[in-house]
Amino acid sequence: MSFLTSDKPIQLYSADYYKACAIGGILACAPTHSLVLPLDLVKCRLQVKPGLYSSNVAGIASIVKNEGLLKVYTGLGATFIGYGLQGMGKYGFYEYFKKTYSDALGFSNSLVYLGASASAEFLADIMLCPFEAMKVKIQTTIPPNQVQNLTKNLYSGLVPLWFRQIPYTMVKFTSFEKIVELIYAKLLTKPKDQYSKLEQTGVSFLGGYIAGIFCAIVSHPADVMVSKINNASKPGESTGAAVSRIYKQIGFGGLWTGLGIRIVMIGTLTGFQWLIYDSFKVSVGLPTTGH
C-alpha cells in the first residue's frame, strides 16, 4: 500500500495509522493460527469425541498414518482467511477504540483496554464466524472429504464465539498492556524508549506469551461449546437450546476438555502474534504497543 512505502512518516492515530495496525493484525493472526493448526485439529476432535486420541502426539501421528501427512492441516483455507479477517478487525479496531475511549474519559487504564478490546472483538467475530464454522465442520468430520452442509448455519455459533473470543481478547489485550508495563517498571532498569526496537519486540513476545496463558483458561469452556455446536447442531435449534443440550451431555468437566494443549497452543500463538504485530509496526516507523 502506498502509505507504507511513502517517505513521509505515518502520523499516530491518523487513518493511515489504523490501516497499518489492521495490516499488522492480518500478518499477526493468519499465519500463526495456520501454523498451530495440527494442534487445533486434535483439540477440536477431542472436544467433539473425547478419548479419540490418547495424547496430542498420538492424535497427530494417527491423522498422518490414517489420513495422510497433509491432513494435519485440515481446514487451512478457512483458518487463514477467517483469522486474517479477525486479526484485521481485532487489532485495527482495538487501536481505534483505545484512542477514542481514552480521549472520551481523559485517561488510559485497564478499563479503557477492556472496553476497547471487547468492542473490537465484537466486530471482528462477525467476520470470523462463518470461516470458524467451516473450519470446525471440516476438522471434526472424519474423513474430512465427507463433510456435508459446509455452508449451512454459518452463524449458528456466533453467540458462543462471542462468549469465547470477547473474554479471550479482553484478557489478551489488557493483560498484555499491564504485563508489558510491569516488565518495564519492575524488571528492566531503563525507560522503554532507551531500549532497542529488537529488545522492545522481545518484551512484546514475553508479554504476549504470558497473556496467552490467561486467555486460554478464561475462554476454554466457550471454545469447547463452539466446537460442539458447529459439529452437532440440529436444524432449527436455537443457540440457547443447543448450549443447554450439550451441557447436559458433557457436564462442567467436559467444558475443560483439551485445556492443556490449548494453553500451549494459545500461549505460543499469542506470543508470536504480539511479536509479529509490533515488529510490523516498528518496520513502518511506529512505536511498539504498551507503555
TrEMBL record:
<keyword id="KW-0496">Mitochondrion</keyword>
<dbReference type="InterPro" id="IPR044677">
    <property type="entry name" value="SLC25A3/Pic2/Mir1-like"/>
</dbReference>
<protein>
    <submittedName>
        <fullName>Unnamed protein product</fullName>
    </submittedName>
</protein>
<feature type="repeat" description="Solcar">
    <location>
        <begin position="108"/>
        <end position="182"/>
    </location>
</feature>
<feature type="repeat" description="Solcar">
    <location>
        <begin position="199"/>
        <end position="283"/>
    </location>
</feature>
<dbReference type="Pfam" id="PF00153">
    <property type="entry name" value="Mito_carr"/>
</dbReference>
<dbReference type="InterPro" id="IPR023395">
    <property type="entry name" value="MCP_dom_sf"/>
</dbReference>
<dbReference type="GO" id="GO:1990547">
    <property type="term" value="P:mitochondrial phosphate ion transmembrane transport"/>
</dbReference>
<feature type="repeat" description="Solcar">
    <location>
        <begin position="16"/>
        <end position="100"/>
    </location>
</feature>
<feature type="transmembrane region" description="Helical">
    <location>
        <begin position="255"/>
        <end position="277"/>
    </location>
</feature>
<keyword id="KW-0677">Repeat</keyword>
<dbReference type="InterPro" id="IPR018108">
    <property type="entry name" value="MCP_transmembrane"/>
</dbReference>
<keyword id="KW-0813">Transport</keyword>
<keyword id="KW-1133">Transmembrane helix</keyword>
<comment type="similarity">
    <text>Belongs to the mitochondrial carrier (TC 2.A.29) family.</text>
</comment>
<keyword id="KW-0812">Transmembrane</keyword>
<dbReference type="GO" id="GO:0005315">
    <property type="term" value="F:phosphate transmembrane transporter activity"/>
</dbReference>
<keyword id="KW-0999">Mitochondrion inner membrane</keyword>
<keyword id="KW-0472">Membrane</keyword>
<dbReference type="GO" id="GO:0005743">
    <property type="term" value="C:mitochondrial inner membrane"/>
</dbReference>
